[in-house]
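Predict the assembly for these four chains.
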Amino acid sequence: MSAAATEPPVDRRARRREEKFARILHEAWALARRDGLAAISLRELADRVDLRQPSLYAYFESKLDLYDAMFAQAYRVIVDRFRAMPAADDPRDQFVEMVRLSVQLASEDIVRHQLLFQRTIPGFEPSDASMAIAYELYDFGSDIMRRAGLTTQAHFDMATAVMAGLAHQQVANDPGGDRWERLAEPTVDLLLASVRAKPGRPTKKGSTR
Amino acid sequence: MSAAATEPPVDRRARRREEKFARILHEAWALARRDGLAAISLRELADRVDLRQPSLYAYFESKLDLYDAMFAQAYRVIVDRFRAMPAADDPRDQFVEMVRLSVQLASEDIVRHQLLFQRTIPGFEPSDASMAIAYELYDFGSDIMRRAGLTTQAHFDMATAVMAGLAHQQVANDPGGDRWERLAEPTVDLLLASVRAKPGRPTKKGSTR
DNA sequence: GTCTATATTCGGATAGAC
DNA sequence: GTCTATCCGAATATAGAC
């Protein structure tokens, strides 16, 4: 409330700070893509944003804190991309589209995929605030799966495994291609067929091992 | 049985060297499990095997070379575990067992899984000799899948994605548990059901990598 | 093969002036 | 917020004696 016509200097400063922070994050991603996530050097990062290395500490408290900011930003991007999916009439189509998008997202930015879904940075643990963004994504995805007919925990677990697996194989064995991405549709139909075959009970009798 | 009664000193020395090298690898794994793969310190590794840090260079040429040795050893262990699987009469059962074993292997040693299946060490590329061991595993697994009825490239790709996904989810979201491991059986049946629904063109033997 | 000694470079982080 | 200066520790790797 109450933003003056001429923006108070405080807000301008805050905005400049945000812009600079965004630039820092941008260059951090660039370095991560070049050398690997774990190999980001604060010295080189500072160089790229025209700062001296100690000045970075005005923007984050430690290197792990930087990773946390990258983690949160990456999840925000992905949540936005999920929300931007065209709404499909058929829930099955929507499910297919989500799986396809997941593989695409992993494929188009491998280090992002590593930071979010593989725990590779020694000592890094996402903050609660960052995890909250992650949970947004899972809720959104769960809705889509539920609408497509998945009901049990086992259904969900199979579906998430399939999504993770397609993405992983795409990234690991056909980077830049679509060999696993194009399996999104048939794989979803596989899952849905099994749901329809034995609704609410995708596992055999005695399903707890 | 042709070893001389008095073993030649050359062979004894060679064996001692191998034993020491094995000890080095053992402790390297221990450090990786404690601190993460990327955080292995040659100083601490040397301490643990009663050497000074520079002496390690009598056993490998660089740190990346150490990772390569770990990579090769890990694949050898896994190949052995695959070969040690009890033979099942039903190829479908054999397939189930393989998927279950894959998830178990990832679950029981997460850093091994990371080194083999996630490219997380900056600059590390397995040597040709190490990759040869990896291919052994893929050939072995391909045979099992083929016998279970998978014929097309798409079948294989789906199956490998499912295996990778179950393992990943198990490791990432239920470490120490069996929430995804117990989905091995129903998931294999899912795959096989789709194969029976629309059988594809057979692939040539050994042509899947 | 193992040692001591050292080179070299780099890392993240802090103190304190402006 | 940004700087200079610096700390302190860590890292991998090499040289050369024994």
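The radius of gyration of chain A is 21 Å. Chain A touches chain B at residues 35-36, 38-39, 114, 117-123, 154, 157-158, 160-166, 168-169, 172, 179-180, 183, 186-187, 190-191, 193-194, 197, 202-204, 207-209 (CB under 8 Å).
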